[in-house]
Protein 1
Amino acid sequence: MIYLDNAATSWPKPESVYQTMDEFLRTKGGNPGRGSHSLAVAAREVVEETRMLVARLINAEENERVIFTLNCTDALNMGLKGMLKPGDHVITSCIGHNSLFRPLKKLEQQGVRVTRLSPHSREGFVSPDDIEKAITQQTKLVVMTHASNVTGVIQPIEEYGEITRHHNIIFMVDAAQTAGRHPIDVQSDNVDLLAFSGHKGLLGPPGTGVLYIGERVDLDTLREGGTSSYSELEEQPLDLPYRYESGTVNSLGISGLGAGVKYIFNEGLERIHTHERYLTDMLIEGLFHIRRIALYTAKNGAKQAPVISFNVEGYEPGEVGAILDQSFDIKARAGLHCAPAAHRTLGTYPLGTVRLSPGYFNTVQDINLTLDSVEKIVEATIHKFVSKKKLKIHSDHPVKITVESNLSIPNFDLNERDVETQSGTLGALLGELSNKHELTEAEFFDSEQGNLYSDYAVYVNGWSYKNIADGLGTPLKEGDKVGIYLNILPAGG
Ligand SMILES: Cc1ncc(COP(=O)(O)O)c(C=O)c1O
């Protein structure tokens, strides 16, 4: 199995993450900060150690500025809704994730004014000048996505940070796709709010995320409740991190997150970054040389996170994703990736793209096998409608037959089409269609060589011919409905 969906969540996790979580739950499972018995203290130490490690990773001024959240979505909601009030103005881009778009949409409905900047290049870069031009007296926040989860294009946050600092505006970054995989320094990049997942690049478990809150920010709380200190106060304490961490934190997840970040420090962020970048470059280079592929990435590898998108001509992204999974055991994601606006910008809406996102545990062999598999799929499209058999046309009069298919060959999408044919039989019709479209080779119907397709089905008026040879002689008449479906596309790599 090859896992290439690290942009959704990283997998596998380092062995130490599994072990730490197992040990935590067995031996340190008290409630951190609630009580002074040894299990509660042990749990608290683990939580605070993780806080320190995460703070170090992003160069936060103080550990307390790292707030544990459920995921990146939670962190984005806390930042946006804690900051923006009706009448405020916020600037963002069109390439973000729904986790950023939807809270902004809700705030917009409540009276916050939102400017959504379009990228100034086809790759999807948002110009710092455009940000500066959009700033008004009411602008309270600029919020940008560090790397697109569709194309992996990395935005120049250090340039945005300079502008926002200059105009005394709060700068928030969605670093879901970069934290733990790409160096981020909140101080030198002038980032005031940094939201990220713990379960992606930081190699922690699901249910973990972080919001870094910088010194310039005073966020309102979205939740109030029990904190691990100041029990005597009636109101929510103002101190960080307690102000924003009401209720029992996900201490088990945080223990795993700590192990993930330790692993990153032990391996070295630079090494992880270099390996992932090497694999990503390999993917881009390899896909670039396969014909009939549209590739959506940055042109410059230095501006590319380990996330890339592509489409294969003649296939829907969902089909390619399913073939990669079912026939080649490659886990890729297909569709809109929760970022419809990014696809509108790319011109890939509404079907989306196929996304490959390698991680530190992928190998060069994984990438080579993936490229081979994509090449096979592309070749299969070219041979999708192919017959070697020379078939005779029996009928003297042309008849109209509806052909329905999940095959879509270039310039000839068969999905529900009326075909005028002189063919007297199903076999002849197939041959006629093949010849018409200059598809002359044998793979599709030839079971001897038929390693391109492991399963297909042919129907005439709803009757299925599982074995195509049995159906070839079936006579056709005016108004018949023929269905040609590939069920499991190319037999695997
Ligand atoms: C750019 C971006 N932002 C936010 C999120 C949401 O992350 P989470 O699933 O941790 O809430 C994702 C997840 O894929 C993402 O790619």
Note: Residues 30 and 40 are 4 Å apart (CA to CA).
Protein 2
Amino acid sequence: MSSEQCYCAFCKHQRRIYTKRHITPINMLLSVLAAFAIMMFLWQEFDPRVLIVFAFCLMVAEMFITIRWRVTLPCPHCGFDPVLYMRNPKKACEKVNTTIDLRRHQASRWLKGKNPMQNLTPRSRPSVKEELKLREASRVAEEMLSRQLSEEQKPTLMNSDSH
Ligand SMILES: [Zn+2]
């Protein structure tokens, strides 16, 4: 089969992708038949130009299959694109963000397809109290460090003065 079920690497929803990226012998056979049909239609007899028509049919088939594969690859639910992720992870992140933002702001989009946030584990954030404590601790540490530095600098300055 040219398509199969898979799970999105980001939102973990099941979806269908086309696994076929290039033409198969069956597509070649169909291209031969199409070329012969076009030949009979245009010239009503055998014509060597059928080879050009055949090459054109092959090109169209290959283009169609490659484009179909590429277009159906991004997840329809969250917009995650594995090929883009391999090339440029930052851009892939931006794409997922814009897709999720779009779905957030358009009520009608929630109704179609699956919720991309459904299977995501929430990122744990420190509470406000914990954050204040952390900030206070880092402030105290900074003060202590600056005091230490100024104390260390004084004797060296005096030493350099005495010489
Ligand atoms: Zn997804």
Note: The chain has two domains: 3-111, 126-163.
Protein 3
Amino acid sequence: MGKVEKIHGVETINGEGFQLTVLDKVIGAARANSMWPLPFATSCCGIEYMATMGSNYDVARFGMERMSFSPRQADLLIVAGTISKKLAPVLKQVYEQMAEPKWVLSVGACACSGGIFDTYSVLQGIDRVIPVDVYVPGCPPRPEQIIEGMMNIHRMVKNESLRRRYSDEYKHLLNKYHLNEDE
Ligand code: SF4
């Protein structure tokens, strides 16, 4: 019998001349450790995100230092800041331009719920227009909280089944946001 070991968080069974593991887990680990974030930063939370990118916190250790300002080469949308209703269709378009699989991190009270701006012009949470995977509370959240949010995204990515994006549940989620062009 082989020996059970964990390599980069992926459980494997190793023996002489063979190594067994689950494909979902290997792909999940590869995706989680090479995420390309697209920062959609509009206000103060964006500045906090810039601090998270700096040398003190160093997101390069998670393989996330390569910012993508093109949605087509990004797999994590980080929304940090106040989103006005006028900007909401732009955010939705950016999300639609990202290829699957993609994830969304909502940073700060404004992105999560409109924050203190309970006004006619501010979107009361980005989940009114796009699905959100992880919410980071705070006004603004500290870089440690943003990193915790990223780590939660990594956990989701590592454990996501390869079949999830083809499931009825996922199609239903996209339909709710009118994001599924096939239906
Ligand atoms: S949550 Fe607070 S810090 Fe963040 S964008 Fe809104 S007002 Fe600014």
Note: Residues 1-32 form one domain.
Protein 4
Amino acid sequence: MAEENTRNTGTTLHEVIGTSLKQLAAEKKNRKKWLFIQPKSSTSMMVDSGSVSMPLNLIMVATLAGEFFNVTLIDERTGDPVPEDFSAYDVVAITFRTLNASRAYSIGDRALAQKKIVVFGGVHPTMMREEAAEHCTSVVYGEVESVWDDLARDILQGTPRPLYQAHELQPMTTMRGPDFSYALNSEHANKYSSRIPVLATKGCPVGCNFCTTPTIYGKSYRYREIDLVLEEMQYHQERLGKKRATFSFMDDNISFRPQYFTELLEGMSKIGVRWNANISMNFLHKPEVAEIAGRSGCDLMSIGFESLNPDIIKSMNKGANRLQNYATAVNNLHRNGIAIQGYFMFGFDDDSEKSFQATYDFIMQNRIEFPVFSLVTPFPGTPYFEEMKPRIRHCDWDRYDTYHYMFEPRNMQGEKLLENFIKLQQEVYKGRAIMKRMQGKPLNWVWLANFKMHAFTRKLNIGMYL
Ligand code: B12
Ligand code: SF4
């Protein structure tokens, strides 16, 4: 009935709900105060070190909340202290992944003990909602936008529910432009990476068995209007001066719909930006894609090559990765001046000593600028976690950073795996190897990253991975 009425008057259901929320908020004499927290992890690996990206997810939630509530955002990774005493706030809202779950739980417990409403959101509480529920008042499953109206109303009325899970995902057209001032005005904002996070699409239907995205969002793939993405970029260009505005896409797989992707890039080429993104291999072997990426200002693509072993690629269900396309994709990007951050994983049952040699050869022959190596990590809630559960060594979430040894692969002893893993990293980041991969490439932060990795990899030892 409500839907019919709204259709007759030309107003959307969302607008009607928004209006009633506004009335409800106005009826409350004091605006409730929310404290948003991005906790840090305790990993010793290079995850939260150096400059970190502005927490776009928390900024997006804070933007919605700012309309009805007073909002403070703190980021423990940049050095903002988390208060011991939460008496200045009504709601403590925390985002987290698996690697910072234990930190989030200790903050949540403290806030609950002080009778605060504690709201959890992000990948880990979504995947582990029963565990998370023990440390909070409410868990938000998946994206907040699709449940925000219910959550805001319940908080205004003082009756928060234990779980908010959308029956239907809203189109991204309803996504509010993020208000970056929540992060930019923070005390330690200078610790943020100069790359501004931006989001154009959500979801990835590829369906890799180790990834959380298909579990949370299924096969859905949604995108924002291109004009809105460009407007957001132009806002930052005006704020910073055109040359200093560089962007980092937070999308799961920005290139999944080739037409949308190329139209977006055409738009970006007209406004003149620099950018980088995670990208899947699905159509990178086509030269025209790399050409337009280069023309639109892409200086770095992050590609999950994962493995050079076809059996491993098959076992992880990563159909987009065709080994025969790897070298062509790299070549196409290089010809257009785009550096490659290549992700490689080890520790699969089908890995053997040969996997390491094949990866080394691929990286050196193709002069991959910034190789990143991780150990395969079954994240809770994924099909891979269920499959590997009986063999996983521990559920110490602090060590779920993709750099810790999780299980013994079938064809390799654990110790051999780690020895080879360390040796590969040290070889690839030897001075001479860096020169071979980087010679003739522009003098920029990628060189710096290589030198940092050189110093870091010299110190590696097996104990660090256990
Ligand atoms: C972009 C990205 C990165 C970027 C930027 C990270 C950053 N600072 O945000 C980079 C490359 C740096 C990165 C690094 C890593 N990443 Co990453 N990354 C992603 C990716 C593809 C998108 C994240 C994103 O920003 N999405 C866009 C935002 C808007 O969506 P969102 O985060 O889901 O937020 C929405 C909801 O979750 C909810 N929500 C979120 N928080 C909150 C809080 C509250 C209170 C509420 C109410 C709601 C709410 O509402 C939000 C808005 O809709 C995800 C995949 C994914 N879809 O989550 C992997 C992912 C998060 N990364 C992952 C991993 C493993 C890592 C690394 C450990 C990899 C590594 N070895 O270095 C590091 C860890 C870095 C860190 N310190 O946390 C895993 C985490 C798995 C897990 N269970 O923990 C994911 C899920 C990919 C996967 N394998 O499945 N990552
Ligand atoms: S291609 Fe990337 S984002 Fe898509 S399911 Fe696989 S790992 Fe996840």
Note: The longest helix spans residues 13-27.
